[in-house]
Amino acid sequence: MSAKILAFLEQSLPTLKQVGLIGLKVLVILVVSYYCALFASKKLHKILQRYDETLANFVHQVVFVCVMIIGVIMTLSNIGVQTTSILAVLGAAGVAIALALKDSLSSIASGILLIVLRPFIKGDNIEIGAISGKVESINIFNTTLLTGDGKVVILPNKNIANSNIINQSKNPNQRIEIQIQIANNHNAAHIKEIIQKVLQTHTTIKKSPKAFVGVIDFDTQKVVLCIRAWISKTQSVFDTKSEIIEKINAELYKKGLFEVSVLEVRVDSRI
Asked: Which cellular component terms (GO) are annotated to the entry (predicted)?
């Protein structure tokens, strides 16, 4: 029995040796390819990051994938597989895969367009439909936003490319809009003057564009005034609107105008 086992091992040893060498060669090529892909993508990312972080991230991902594909093809070629036949099969399969993954490929194409056309970059505050937030990253397939309430929203690039994009960061200023309701028996023009004086003395309100105060609605019981004032992007929206409302309330209280209430407060970056 032992003689048969020894004979089998002696016959199998050359084959096992050959398989081991091929396996070692495959392992070495794949490991080298991985580290080459990692090195090349990181090096390019470091260089491009000085100019555009979004482009750097995109090139980093593309270069890594391309180098790894080349490494796999080299591996197959070294173990005796006819790569030309494989490439032909992959080409045919690629058409079927492209049809099956057309939405994903559309997102890739849209991601490239977003990077080239640059309607927004990382750090911009944007609105896409009903979603608004700060751009955290732009990847091949999707874009990540961080909303004002701390939620992370991941949007496919295809959806972004087909939507209207409002980039609030393109304008260095932001507009605060406050709607105030007053009783119909009060003099709206007098209250407008009081509000305008408050806005003129407020240090964070910009002189240009000029603040607006005017009537936007009325009926038999009430008059609605609208305040539109601009502040810098660096100013705190919440602090500024709170200070404006407090000062207006204090001035109106001094004049004995108590039947006044705030209807709505909005923040906008559009004129």
From this structure: plasma membrane
Pure H helices in the chain: 2-48, 53-78, 83-100, 102-117, 157-161, 188-201, 237-254
Q: Are the C-beta atoms of residues 120 and 126 closer than 8 Å to each other?
A: yes
Instruction: Check pLDDT > 60 for residue 266.
Output: no
In a domain, 42, yes or no: no
Contact 224, 217 (CB under 8 A): yes
DSSP letter for 39, please. Answer: H
45: its two tokens: 């990312």
The helix/strand/coil state of 154 is strand
Residue among 134, 110, 107, 108 at smallest CA distance from 122: 134
Structure tokens, 140: 């091949």
Q: Are 56 and 49 in contact (CB under 8 A)?
A: yes
CATH number at residue 132: 2.30.30.60
Higher pLDDT, 102 or 239: 239
Together in a domain, 184 and 156: no
Residue 46 amino acid letter: K
Side chain identity at 134, as an amino acid letter? K
Contacts of residues 64-67 at CB distance under 8 Å and 24 or more positions apart, as own/partner, are 64/37, 64/38, 64/40, 65/37, 66/37, 67/33, 67/36, 67/37, 67/40, 67/41
In a domain, 135, yes or no: yes
What is residue 80's DSSP assignment? T
Distance of alpha carbon 81 from alpha carbon 125, whole angstroms: 51
Question: How far does CA 236 lie from the centroid of its chain?
Answer: 22
Its domain, for residue 179, covers 171-262
pLDDT of residue 267: 47
